[in-house]
Amino acid sequence: MSITTGTWNLDPTHTEIGFAVRHIMSKVRGKFETFEGSIVSADPISDSKVSVEVDLSSINTGTADRDNHLRSSDFFDTETHPKMTFTSTGVVQKSDESFVVNGDLTIKGVTKPLQLDVDFLGEGKDPWGGTRVGVEATGEISRKEFGIDFNIPLEGDKVMIGDKITITINAEAVLEA
Description:
This protein has one helix spanning 64-71; strands at residues 6-10, 16-23, 26-32, 35-41, 49-55, 59-60, 83-95, 98-107, 110-125, 131-142, 153-154, 158-159, 161-175. By secondary structure, the chain is mainly β. The chain has a single domain (6-175), classed as Beta Barrel (Lipocalin). It is elongated, with a radius of gyration of 17 Å. Residues 7-174 form the Lipid/polyisoprenoid-binding YceI-like domain. Pfam families: YceI.
């Protein structure tokens, strides 16, 4: 894996920050439409940094009523806590094409560690004279650890909404000139 050192800015039109959560017998998936972030790649790779800020009100699950409920105080409380942030604390190379990014995720004023498993998809020139890099990342959090514990009890000690949230990030970033 060879990544040019420098600062890379997320391309919002070619990046998706998504999630999945269990809902009764299936999974609900969604994404955030508004965010900004950067990757500062270094040599050695362990000195690299990642930071991302997400506008929680930009949540999109494809259902307006559900999205409005997720913005409410039952879940994200976007009026009081409009942003979710991630700041890396360390990068570990696992192989030529994969690494782990450890960091601090903050939601609703609560900061917890998050480990992202990252696959490097490559680096290359784009048709406009820029240089791009692609990565895919996955991680998992407990929503209850962030104070997002709204639920509805179901028959047999079950609940409507699962605690584990799977995070998926498909990112393309552009090297600053």
